[in-house]
Amino acid sequence: MRFIIPLGLLSSRLRIFLAVFLALLIVFSLSAEHRASPLNILIIHSYNEHIPWNKAFTRGLDDFLESRGAEFDVFREYLDAYRSGSKTLDSEFAEFLRARYSKMDIDIVVGESDEAADFVDRYQHEFAPEAATIYFASHSYEEDDTHLAIVPDIPYVVQSGVDYALEQNPDANKVLIVRGNNPEAKLSAEAMEQTLGSIEKVNTSVASDFSLESLLEELKAFPASGVIFYTLVFEDNTGQKFSPRDFLGHIAAVSKAPIYVYYSTLVGNGAVGGYVIDGDALAKNVLEASSGYALNGRFRRHYRATSEMFDWNALKQHGIAFSSIPNSARIINRPEGFVEKNLYATVTTLGGIALLLIVVIFLAVYFAKRNAKLSYLNLQLEQAQKSLSRSNEHLNQLAMHDALTGIYNRRAAMPLVNEAMKRVQGSKAKYALMLIDLDSFKRVNDRHGHKVGDEVLMMLAKKVSGLLRSGDVFARWGGEEFLLLARIEQDDDAHIVAEKIRSKVEESEFGVDGLKVTVSIGVVLTATDSHFDALFQCADKALYEAKQQGRNRVQFAASDR
User: Fold this and answer.
1) Which partner for 522 in 62, 290, 485, 542 could form a disulfide, CB atoms 3.0-4.6 Å apart?
2) Is 480 a catalytic residue?
3) Neighbouring C-beta atoms of residue 230, cutoff 10 Å
4) Whole-angstrom Cα distance, residue 349 to residue 221?
5) Catalytic one among 112, 193, 480, 499?
6) pLDDT tens track for 308-355
7) Which domains are assigned to the chain?
8) What is the pTM of this model?
9) CA angle at 508 for the pair 442 and 402, rounded to the nearest 5°
10) 370: Cα within 13 Å, side-chain hemisphere
């Protein structure tokens, strides 16, 4: 039997209490719903995703998201400052970001490294004006509750690195600083000289103006009891260029003395390691800062992008005692089965986990009856949303990308081409429209089969994709024909790009006897009054001429010769 009590029979105080209780319950539910929505973070990198620093950043990002991924939706874009080389392209990149993200509620924008940080500082108001900002750069920015700058403290990093090196090599009385001629290397070397200059027993010298060969000879004579500090070297005095990691590999191969570095991407290539600026640590601190901002509505200003990192092989090679490595350090290349003797820390941690589990179980039982239905519905909704999101992503991929090569199809490319044509009209923007067609492709399929033919198409897509810059449009137009709309600064750039594509395809190897693949390319340059249909016809005629004149060639439209 149920009893229903009319509200009119309740006292006024009880009615007020029920009203307040219901109001608080509604507010709590809304706030819980708000917290459940992920934080949208847009990360803009200075350089492409293939450089070692960005790979370390990705590793740290994945590690953090694996445990707390539901809190964030992370989007990443690449300014690629190595390839752009021109500030005039920044405004186009900002327009690209505005088109992609203006309808999305971006909560935090991250400018990673100097070029991206400066870009965000100048252009964020165009594509995410309401978002908070995190800068990672070698110089500082003005900070407040919604702006955070993570700036490596070079003197502190250097001091910590020197302390580790001299503690691990107590008999060292000679130090050699291998200094590159870039600003970062000079700054680090100056801080090292200042730090080492106050240590009486250490004789410090600097190698800065050298060829690789002369430096290797100097290192061969350097004593094993000494210590070497390596900064970033991109070029020697003969003009020979290197990646800093490759250069380190050369000197580590001949050095008898341990080498210490200040960037995590250099550890594991012959260097012992040290106190390093770390892309992995930066990614985790960016997400930790974002999580704190979501919780408190402001940033706290104590985040680092550094860690203690050492290479097991280098430690062993130079006889450095493992007891000198701090417990908090990350050791790479450590053999499987190595066990840290941290029994007290282990027992304490397990005890804390057990206590936490007891508390969690108690709370789970206490709230189970009240929250069971809500948890079930939330779970069903979350699963439905994830399923819908995966379906939408898959459909979008199928609709906008070529199934074989993974690049844009004609449907996806046309809106991008039309946008580029609008920029051309009435502006100084210039493009080259290229039609790229595989020569005698039917013969490839007939002689070697469609599987090899597919490999040829994928190879062409990969070769061209590797040359693209921000703002370029590349698509499979149909069959063995591809379209490339490439942004150029000068007319000669079009010939350089087209010839590079042609030569890379010609040089490709497939491991199939008798298979030689070439392409013919028709090229036309845009003008301020250009229209796509007319340009396409010109490029198509130029492609036809290239075929008629023997194939495996670049042919410009008649008006561009």
Assistant:
1) 542
2) yes
3) 27
4) 49
5) 480
6) 999 999 999 999 988 889 888 999 998 875 445 565 666 788 888 988
7) 154-282+309-332 (3.40.50.2300), 408-560 (3.30.70.270)
8) 0.53
9) 60
10) 6
